[in-house]
Amino acid sequence: MGFNSKDKLSSKRSKDSILTTGFSFLILFPMMYLMLPTVIFLFLGMLPTLVALIVDSSSKAKFKYKWLCIGGLNFAGSLPYLFRLWFGNNTWDGAVELFLSGMAFFIIYLTALLGWMFYRYIPPVVLSFLELADQRRVVNLREAQVKLIAKWGEEVASGVAVNIPDALKNKKTGASANEAKKP
User: Which domain holds residue 88?
Assistant: First the structure.
């Protein structure tokens, strides 16, 4: 009986999925026809993002940020020209003409290139800053460890390899020698 209810639930989900997809296409295609100049312009302008999405999905990396980085800046470069299309010559010919005008093509693809450069060069820079911060933290912790050993003795560092500078060893032995002289 439990098996039968799972089949009913599965068939209901697939029916809902088919209905949702059908309604989406029912709405999507007329909207695409009504906004065809926008679709043409965005298709031409967002080609670097499409390529990045295809290339990024074929990589084995867990997180795929290439297409997001390129796509965000690519869309930002396309947006001013998209507004110019909407409030100007909003026809098929107007969309292609606007895209092929030298400045729009150059700026849209230049922003995509900038997105690719951000994707490529920002993570190593951030990584090097994080490594420097980690190295500085290690140095600070070592200094604190040396001070604790100087104050409490080497027993607090049992089982830990510690490099105690000679200056601190001399201070420690000098302090204990002075304490021994006092009556």
Answer: 35-131
Cα–Cα distance measured from residue 146 to residue 162, given in angstroms and rounded to the nearest whole number: 8
What's the burial of 61, exposed, middle or buried (CB within 10 Å: 0-12/13-18/19+)?
Answer: exposed
- pTM for the model stands at 0.61
Assigned domain for 114 exists? yes
**From the CB of residue 14, how many other CB atoms can be counted at a distance below 10 Å?**
10
Question: Does the residue 167 lie in any domain?
Answer: no
Does residue 44 lie within any of the structural domains?
yes
Within the chain, residue ranges assigned H as helices are: 2-34, 36-45, 47-57, 66-86, 92-100, 102-152, 166-181
Does the residue 30 lie in any domain? no
Q: Left if phi > 0, otherwise alpha if psi is -120 to 50, otherwise beta: which for 153? A: left
The string of DSSP codes covering 159-181 is TS-----HHHHHHHHHHHHHHHH
CA 65 vs. chain centroid, Å, equals 5
User: How many structural domains does the chain have?
Assistant: 1
pLDDT in tens, 112-136: 999 999 999 998 999 999 999 999 9
